[in-house]
Every structure is written in C-alpha cells, then in structure tokens.
Design brief:
heterodimer, A: 218 residues, mainly alpha, MetI-like fold, 8 helices, 85% helix, B: 217 residues
Chain lengths: 218, 217
C-alpha cells in the first residue's frame, strides 16, 4: 500500500529533486561569484569599504535564513523588481550564502604569502592577473573542502524556500502528504534523498581535503 | 514607500512572539547542551553495534534539513496516536538536531585533550570520574566554547522554522502582520533586528565565557 503510493508519486518527487538540485546549483554558483567579489572588494576598497562590508556580512549572519528569505521576497517588489518566486528564492539564498563564501575566501586569501603578490607586481602584472593566475588557484585549493561543506549546507537550506512557495523537494513532499495522508512514507523518502545528496557532498569534501593534504606534503 | 508605523501598531503581537522565541531558544538550547553532552559521552564510550547506531543517527541528523524532520514529527506523531502541542514538537525537533551538533563540537574538544594526560592521571591514582572532571572536562570545555556559541546562535535562528508548522513565534507574528496589513516588508525588518539582538547578546556571552575559561587554562 505504502510502496504503491511512493511508486505513483515517484516521477513527481524526482522532478522535485531535480528542482532542488537546480536551485542548489544556481545558488552555489551565484554565491561563489558574489562571495569572490565581496572578498576582493574588501581587500581593494580600503578601510571604509572593508568596514561597511564587514557590517553587512555580520548583519546578514545575525538573522535566520528564513527571515532573510522573507525580507528579500517582500523587498524585491518594493524595488520594482518582479521575478518568479523561484528566482526570488535563488537570489535570497545566494545573497545569504555569499557572506559565508566571502568569509571562507578571506581566510584562504590570508594564507597566500604577500611576497607572491609583490613578485607579481615586480613582474609588471596587473591586479586582476595576479589574482587570477597567482592567488586564486592556490586560495581555491585551500578553500575547496570548506566550500564543498558549504554546498552541502546550501542543499539543506534550499528546503527553507519552500515556505515562500518555491516548488522543490520539501514542498512537493508536503503536497504529497496532504493528498495521501501518509507522512511517514513521503517524509522518510525525502529524508533519504536529502541524505544521499548531502552525505555524498560531505564525503567527497573529506576525500578532496585528504587528497590535497597528500599532494601538499610531497 | 515604507510604512514603519505598522511595527508600533502591532508591537503587542511582536512582543508575544519575541517572548515565545526566547522561551523556545532557552528551553531547546538548555536541553540540547545536556543532550549533546550525553550523546557525546555515549559516542566516546560506545563500541560495536551501539557505536554504529549512534554514528548513523549523527550523520542522518547532520545531513538532512531540519524542516523535513520537523514535518515528519509534526505530521507523523498524530498518525501513531500521539497528540503533542506544536511548541513541544518544535522543542523536540530542535533538540534532536542540535544535540547532535553540540555532541560533535564537544567530541572534538574531548579528543583534543592528549591521551598522555589521561594516562598521567591514571598513573597518579585518580579515579576515572576525577580524571573526567578535573583533567578532561575543563580543557574540552574551553576548547569548544566558541564553536558551541555558534551552534547556539544557529539554534536561535532555527527556532524561526517553527513558523512553518504555525507556531506563533517571532517569525509567525511577522508573517501574520504582513498578511493582514499592506506593509508586507516592514515587520520582517523589525524581527530581523530582534534576532540580530539575540545573536549578538549570545556572542557577547560567548566571548565572556571564552575569556573566563581561558583563565582556567
């Protein structure tokens, strides 16, 4: 009985799982780009910019994700931006996690010796070239495990945007439960799907950091 | 464009929500600390199948969204004939999740205490509990205070998910106000400030404890 319910709903749930993946992917990519820009801006822009960005980051980190999602969801129309709920969810998640990416990158950038940047300057390289050719390849290597763990957190966090009505795995599961009154079947199935995604990401992060430590040592 | 008077007009609701959120955070936070300590002790002691079960539980909780667990408990328990109030349900789910986080942090703290110190304690004839209380706990505690504080901040933030199952906390209050009035955005700014205040207070308390436990070291 329960199994047939699950089999019947399988195409819908898999589609919802796809939506969750797309959402997590867009969010992660946007957050990476934004976080990189924030980290760069606070290095280049001098004390005032760095201070303002610090305040923004700390401010965003002080509020719950759900509240931040609501804030963005209701703020966008006020600013004259009318986009689909799905994209509003993306924007909210991306802005929220960009602060985390910026923090991770900031930590990684600190580990790059200053002499390398000075060497680049001495060779007459421009700032962006130094960043892209010298600094970032090393910083990303250092930051990768932390960024992968963040990706797992993003996958879990996408469930929150179901509350503003973005159709993804959590909302689809909820709807299925409302229709069939079989909470255990569907929520446990959803738990399983999230678990596979997140645990897979976390394990590969652990594997990567192990491999990178090995190559660093030799 | 913005109508801030709505916040003053509905301060009663917001204050009630704030009160509930604080109560929820205190209760769930305290229980998570206790539960986390117990879970950590169990994980450090357990061998064989018990260890396997505990690891499975920890990994499951760490790698699945809180919201799904919350729905599972909230909609699942009545199906097996257990009617519990929404507040209790949220507390249970928060404790289920965050005691795992607490236990992981504490476990890291305990594992950071060198084994040689425990052996030294044994060598001078200390009892196991004395070693735990005098050698291990103070060091593990001071090593894990900063991370524990971020777990507790996350717990405060996660209380907002109670709004998903209609618990009338701070977030739900803002949601209700925003749906009743034309001011959809403003109440969320008000509650964002409230949550920031709570997080900030907690992190201040964190650095206070950190300084004190630093002296103990």
């Amino acid at each position: 009985m329960e199994v047939t319910l699950l089999v019947n709903a399988a195409p819908l749930l898999l589609q919802a799982l796809g939506q969750t993946l797309v959402l997590a992917l867009i969010t992660t990519l946007l957050a990476l780009v934004l976080g990189f820009l924030i980290a760069e801006a606070s290095m280049l822009g001098g004390r005032a910019v760095a201070f303002i960005l610090r305040c923004v980051i700390e401010g965003i980190r002080g509020i719950p994700l759900l509240v931040f999602v609501f804030l963005i969801y209701y703020l966008l129309p006020r600013l004259g931006i009318f986009i689909d709920t799905f994209y509003a969810g993306c924007v909210a998640l991306a802005l929220f996690f960009a602060t985390y990416v910026a923090e991770i990158l900031r930590g990684a950038l600190r580990t790059i010796p200053k002499v390398q940047i000075e060497a680049g300057k001495a060779l007459g390289m421009r700032h962006w070239k130094i960043q892209l050719v010298v600094v970032m390849p090393q910083a990303v290597r250092i930051a990768l495990p932390a960024l992968m763990n963040l990706a797992a957190i993003v996958i879990k966090a996408t469930s929150v945007v179901s509350i503003i009505g973005v159709w993804e795995l959590t909302l689809a599961t909820n709807e299925a439960v409302m229709r069939t009154l079989a909470p255990f079947t569907f929520f446990i199935a959803a738990l399983g799907m999230y678990f596979v995604l997140c645990y897979g990401t976390v394990r590969s992060a652990a594997y990567l950091s192990k491999r990178m430590n090995r190559s660093q040592r030799s | 464009m913005f109508d801030w008077s709505v916040i003053a007009r509905s301060r009663e609701e917001l204050l009630n929500g704030f009160q509930l959120t604080v109560m929820l955070a205190c209760l769930a936070g305290g229980l998570s600390l206790v539960g986390g300590l117990l879970l950590c002790a169990a994980r450090l002691k357990a061998r064989g199948p018990a260890a396997w079960v505990l690891t499975a539980y920890v990994e499951l909780m760490r790698n699945t969204p809180l919201l799904i667990t919350m729905y599972l408990i909230y909609f699942g328990l009545p199906m097996v004939g257990l009617q519990i109030p929404t507040f209790t349900c949220v507390v249970v789910v928060l404790v289920m999740q965050h005691s795992v986080f607490v236990s992981e942090v504490l476990r890291g703290g305990f594992l950071s205490v060198p084994l040689s110190q425990i052996e030294a304690g044994r060598a001078i004839g200390m009892r196991p509990f004395a070693i735990f209380r005098i050698v291990q706990l103070p060091q593990a505690w001071s090593a894990s205070v900063p991370a524990l504080m971020s777990v507790l901040v996350l717990l405060i933030h996660d209380t907002s998910l109670g709004a998903a199952i209609s618990l009338v906390d701070l977030t739900m209050a803002a949601k209700v106000i925003s749906q009743r009035t034309a001011a959809s955005f403003e109440p969320f700014v008000a509650i964002a400030i409230c949550y920031s205040l709570l997080s900030w207070l907690l992190s201040r308390a964190g650095s206070f404890f950190e300084r004190r436990s630093g002296i103990a070291r």
